[in-house]
Amino acid sequence: MFEELKTHFGKLVSLTPEEFAYVSSHFTSRKFRKHQFVAQQGSPVSHDFFVVKGLLKSSFVNEQGKEHILQLAMEDWWISDYQAYFNQTDATLDITCVEDVEVLCLSLANREKLCSELHQIEHFFRKKSNAGYIALQRRILSLMSQSAAERYHELLQMYPSLAQRLPKTLLASYLGVSRETLSRLSA
Amino acid sequence: MFEELKTHFGKLVSLTPEEFAYVSSHFTSRKFRKHQFVAQQGSPVSHDFFVVKGLLKSSFVNEQGKEHILQLAMEDWWISDYQAYFNQTDATLDITCVEDVEVLCLSLANREKLCSELHQIEHFFRKKSNAGYIALQRRILSLMSQSAAERYHELLQMYPSLAQRLPKTLLASYLGVSRETLSRLSA
């Protein structure tokens, strides 16, 4: 499963085999089952997770039990509760598995160590953070200014396989609409 | 005005006077008047802006002319349309001055050059990007799960001086409520 990580790093930086072996030695691999919690509101978030296989979501569950999905992550994406991870505070989000999942886990200490030791790794994570920032900017604009129908069609267009894999209830929660509204949109 | 930038960098990295002089030589200073556009929907975004003095906003204006404020930036903050800046595409946001403004401008080419030449600068911008990511995560959770009243009180608590300086119409637009609703909240 480190092959996927190697390809992933290779898209942004050139590491020698020795450098990559060193980098990958700072990751641990884990498997989670569908519905399992990878991080939980109120508990610390120990790792950032690189998805090798499967689909996860991060979501906020309010006091009334209503779930708001912040992000989805499938193969080749990263997911964590970054506020909690970077600030080493308790999670405000749940991260749970939509499918059976294989991830590679990176602790904050190991991330900072690698960034400090290898300029290229610092470069890699700066680029990833910029990309993540842009994705969140898009998400905010979408929440503020688009209709549910527009959000639905944009998701289908940008991530067709993701929309396919996602149960309809979760798709509705991600779009911020009721299950009934989604049925009308996707009819 | 480079004194402010020096203090700002000094919070995250240690640069020698020579290094800082080299870094600062890649910035240009500009002044804008209240209401002036720093970036405009549909045009390229040439720079990231470090705010030395004044207050700016980035906002999305929809086809009906309704303004949604994505972000505010005052002294010691950065602002740009990062999607447009990093991808070198046309802006989807307007960035305009709420007050008279002094900024230090960094082009993408100069940012990448500095990050490549100085590991510490790459570290600085990675940390800033992480912090920006966290701020957007908070903003999304707030938009998804908080009431207008909760958003208003959180803003007052976190950024009291910002809420003071911001005209009520813009404060309402940032919170996503009507001017009338805001009057009730702040009564």
UniProtKB/TrEMBL annotation, chains A, B:
Domain named Cyclic nucleotide-binding: residues: 30-116
InterPro entries on file: cNMP-bd_dom, cNMP-bd_dom_sf, RmlC-like_jellyroll
Cross-referenced Gene3D superfamilies: Jelly Rolls
Pfam family, one: cNMP_binding
This protein's name: CRP-like cAMP-binding protein
Source organism of the structure: Dyadobacter jiangsuensis
